[in-house]
Amino acid sequence: MQHGKYRFIVGFLAAPLGLYALFVVWPFIQSIYYSFTDWTGLSPDFTMVGLDNYARMLDDDIFWKSLRHSLLFALLVPVVTIGLALFLSFMINVGGRRRRGGPVISGVRGSAFYKIVYFFPQVLSIAIVALLFAFAYNPDSGAINSFLRAVGLDDVQPLWLGDPGLALWAVMAVVVWSTVGFFVVLFSAGMASIPMDLYEAALLDGADRITTFFRITLPLLWDTVQSGWVYMGILALGAESFAVVHIMTTGPGGPDYSTTVMVLYVYQKAFRDGQAAYATTIGVALLVVTLAFAALVMKLGRRERLEY
Amino acid sequence: MKTTETPAPVPAEPGGTLTRLTKADGPGGASPGKEKTGGVLNVFSHGVLVIWAIMVALPLVWAVMTSFKDDAAIFGSPWSLPDRLHFENWSRAWTQAHMSDYFLNTVLVVGGSLIGTLVLGSMAAYVLARFEFPGNRFIYYLFIGGMSFPVMLALVPLFYVVDNMGLLNTIHGLILVYIAYSLPFTVFFLTAFFRTLPGTVAEAAFVDGASHTRTFFQIMLPMARPGLISVGIFNFLGQWNQYMLPTVLNTDEDKHVLTQGLVQLAVSQGYKGDWSGLFAGLVMAMLPVLAAYIVFQRQVVQGLTAGALK
């Protein structure tokens, strides 16, 4: 297998590696470098300013707001999403009626149907989902408030995206809505591979379903839960939160920056305000937050690996 | 493993001893008692599951319904059924609101990037999986490192890189960038896949005089088809639904892709205040992926979950 090996390797790697280096790696390196300059992005001239951008960032109230919102996105959204998904997938896979002569634990009737429907939002663009919910949240004529009126809750007519105290929660709910189905399917696949005799043994010991869930299902599923958590957190810090906040909230960024997240702030500084260097500084902070989040979840989630 | 220390061996006759032990047995036989415990939980779990199913399906049904209403009905009574099916919303959106152009742009961009991603991704993955050479590990980790970095950080300089190359607001520029950003996951997934394929077939072909390139395209690539399909679906959905990259790199309205075009329409208050047309456009953009999902349901789920499981 040696003949012409290196020529082949170089030939096959050149195009993909070149493209990747040019459009991904090189911009990453550049952006860290730019965070030490006063580059506007509009003109090619800039000078080195050392840590000025970082000092400015620490004094920037909007930066701290966006950091707080991003942290909420990274911590709360995955917890709610994964919690809800675990609950639903346990219902789907274990909540079934016990049939005579059948397996001790069984899925509900129509489990395949539930999994198909729950997955729907996952294949839709987050941008389209965001648009749809922006209409639904409209305080006067949106679907949600009209529904509340229809059931007699005329006094409960929140402004949703227009209310600084509510906007962020309304936006986060959309991310949860669109991602739960993915984890239901993921966890269902994990649950299906747990051997049935473990459940049988637990039931023989008189364990109820809640105990079964916490003592058997969750520990055996833990690896999946953990990688799902990291994956979801990175999404919630980046692309997902950008799309929902950018599209749904006025400004964009919400009334009084109430929904501004770091990734949106980077975008606005760079492409709206002509402060490319400062934008990359916030971007570096975002990178630090992302890596810290992943490390934290990995550390907190470390358990003895169970083999079965 | 710990749980197996419990009195394990399950009685041979299924449903017999076991069900009796779980206190479900009512007098006079198994079934009525079982209905009781199993039944309550069953009703409860079905209740919860149905509620979530409604919460997922209702917004989508509502969107489809709204796309057939006129503007007055959309604002007057958001939950009522349309008085008649206003198909003109759809035709208006398709032609006047440029949905047809956005569709075409999206098909071109996604088609080009998908092919490019699969070809370049499988080439890189094949070399990394099956050949030893200095720097192999480094290049592999360089690729997969891209999965965890926030894209937005790179977007600022990327804008200027693309601009300097004269690729801003072009379809082929967008294709190249999509490919580059799809490579980390694709290489990661396919490297693992190529490692699982038997090497003996490739060696046999090589001994028979086929070149490395020929071995790859004629032997290995066809063998990798299941992996290519999974990763292809994953990339298709990701690229079709992409929003951040085109928002930054593709600001020319004639070159807009679907997601961008729709958001643009909504921001400008629906073109000329035409909300019904906007809803028609929204549903138009939703239907192809929903239809594709229903048809290729199994592959979509496999493709997407493979990403998070590994």
TrEMBL record, chain A:
CDD domains reported in the protein's UniProt record: TM_PBP2 (cd06261)
Domain ABC transmembrane type-1 intervals: 67-297
Major subcellular site: membrane
Keyword set includes Transmembrane: yes
Protein's membrane topology: Multi-pass membrane protein
Transmembrane segments: 7-29, 71-95, 116-137, 166-187, 229-248, 276-298
Domain of life: Bacteria
Pfam families per UniProt: BPD_transp_1
InterPro entries, alphabetized: ABC_transporter_permease (IPR051393), MetI-like (IPR000515), MetI-like_sf (IPR035906)
Record-linked SUPFAM superfamilies: MetI-like (SSF161098)
Keywords: Cell membrane, Membrane, Transmembrane, Transmembrane helix, Transport
Subcellular localization(s) per the UniProt record: Cell membrane
Family recorded in the similarity comment: Belongs to the binding-protein-dependent transport system permease family.
PANTHER family documented for this protein: ABC TRANSPORTER PERMEASE PROTEIN, DIACETYLCHITOBIOSE UPTAKE SYSTEM PERMEASE PROTEIN NGCF
Name under which the protein is recorded: Sugar ABC transporter permease
Organism in which the protein naturally occurs: Streptomyces cathayae
Highest classification ranks of the organism: Bacteria, Bacillati, Actinomycetota, Actinomycetes, Kitasatosporales
UniProtKB/TrEMBL annotation, chain B:
Gene3D superfamilies in alphabetical order: MetI-like (1.10.3720.10)
Residue span, ABC transmembrane type-1 domain: 103-296
InterPro entries hit by this protein: MetI-like (IPR000515), MetI-like_sf (IPR035906)
Region Disordered, annotated ranges: 1-34
Segments traversing the membrane: 43-65, 102-128, 140-162, 174-194, 215-237, 275-296
Subcellular location(s) per record: Cell membrane
Cytoplasm as UniProt keyword: no
Keywords, alphabetical: Cell membrane, Membrane, Transmembrane, Transmembrane helix, Transport
Biased composition (Low complexity): 1-17
Membrane topology, as annotated: Multi-pass membrane protein
PANTHER family: ABC TRANSPORTER PERMEASE PROTEIN MG189-RELATED-RELATED, SN-GLYCEROL-3-PHOSPHATE TRANSPORT SYSTEM PERMEASE PROTEIN UGPE
Protein family according to the UniProt entry: Belongs to the binding-protein-dependent transport system permease family.
Protein name in UniProt: Carbohydrate ABC transporter permease
Classification lineage: Bacteria, Bacillati, Actinomycetota, Actinomycetes, Kitasatosporales
